[in-house]
């Protein structure tokens, strides 16, 4: 019989871990944050957006001028130390009005995105999870709503409720949730066939718990990215409506109404158009870059 001691010898305890490679345990949230922070373009966009948001919230409060205060002695003044963005045809400080307009535009974008997300997630989740005839009829309803131009909804609602922020939010939300619902539905259809959903069903979880506690939670990455892209879409829609004259009415001002007011004097006072348009562009671009960064952080394997 062979002596095992000739072939196997005990290893010194100090040598057991010489080649041991330890990997730090990370939560999903921490891993996503680290990948997002490494994306320089997304971080720069996040900083710019936070600066814009903070200035929009607190800027009009600390400004020495009111957004609707008129002074005929300083009409159409060019940018100066007293009025950083100049004044308009009524002698109103454009810097204060741009900050106030950015507040209105951001509020419209964020509120509509939240409402569309809630409706779209619930509607699409139910359609995808139940399936069958329920799914077919629910999706045909979305096709009908989607086939009608969104501008028509908004104009009709404004005729009923007037030209104000509430009308724009309602008009954008009438069909704005459809893209979210379709996306969530496709995610739920894929996820409900996975093993974890079957395991939850076998363990006795009811349909509501499976849908909201398992399927939708596992779709949060895609939902978050979609939300960040819905905000700039809503901001652009509000700016477009205000620019064509069917948006917010005076004396309230959004970035779109400021651009529309400056259109008449574009050749004489181009700065009155420059600043609100620049604010719209910077806000939309920063939100798009944030959404792109979140997409790369939440779905690193999908990045080419």
TrEMBL record:
Q: Give the membrane topology, semicolon-separated if more than one.
A: Multi-pass membrane protein
Q: Which Pfam families match?
A: BPD_transp_1, OppC_N
Q: Could you confirm whether the keyword Lipid metabolism appears in this record?
A: no
Q: Where in the cell is it found?
A: Cell membrane
Annotated PROSITE patterns: ABC_TM1 (PS50928)
Q: Does the keyword Iron-sulfur belong to this entry? A: no
Protein keywords: Cell membrane, Membrane, Peptide transport, Protein transport, Transmembrane, Transmembrane helix, Transport
Q: What is this protein called?
A: ABC transporter permease
Lineage start: Bacteria, Bacillati, Bacillota, Clostridia, Lachnospirales
């Amino acid at each position: 019989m062979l002596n095992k001691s000739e072939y196997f010898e005990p290893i010194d305890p100090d040598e057991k871990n010489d080649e041991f490679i330890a990997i730090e345990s990370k939560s999903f949230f921490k891993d996503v944050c680290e990948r997002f922070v490494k994306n320089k373009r997304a971080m720069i966009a996040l900083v710019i957006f936070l600066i814009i948001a903070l200035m929009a919230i607190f800027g009009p409060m600390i400004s020495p001028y009111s957004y609707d205060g008129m002074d005929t002695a300083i009409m159409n003044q060019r940018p100066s130390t007293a009025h950083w963005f100049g004044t308009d045809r009524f002698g109103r400080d454009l810097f204060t009005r741009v900050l106030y307009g950015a507040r209105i535009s951001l509020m419209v974008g964020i509120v509509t995105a939240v409402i569309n997300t809630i409706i779209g997630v619930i509607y699409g989740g139910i359609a995808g999870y139940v399936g069958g005839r329920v799914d077919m009829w629910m999706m045909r309803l979305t096709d009908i709503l989607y086939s009608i131009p969104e501008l028509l909804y908004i104009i009709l609602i404004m005729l009923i409720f007037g030209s104000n922020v509430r009308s724009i939010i309602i008009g954008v939300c009438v069909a704005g949730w459809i893209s979210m619902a379709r996306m969530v539905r496709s995610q739920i259809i894929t996820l409900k066939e996975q093993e974890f959903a079957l395991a939850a069903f076998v363990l006795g979880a009811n349909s509501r718990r499976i849908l909201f506690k398992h399927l939708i939670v596992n779709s949060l990455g895609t939902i978050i990215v979609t939300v960040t892209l819905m905000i700039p879409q809503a901001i652009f829609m509000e700016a477009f409506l205000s620019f064509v004259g069917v948006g917010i009415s005076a004396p309230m001002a959004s970035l779109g109404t400021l651009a529309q007011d400056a259109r008449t004097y574009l050749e004489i006072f181009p700065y009155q158009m420059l600043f609100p348009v620049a604010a719209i562009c910077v806000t939309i671009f920063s939100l798009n870059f944030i959404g792109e960064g979140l997409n790369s952080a939440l779905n690193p394997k999908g990045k080419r």
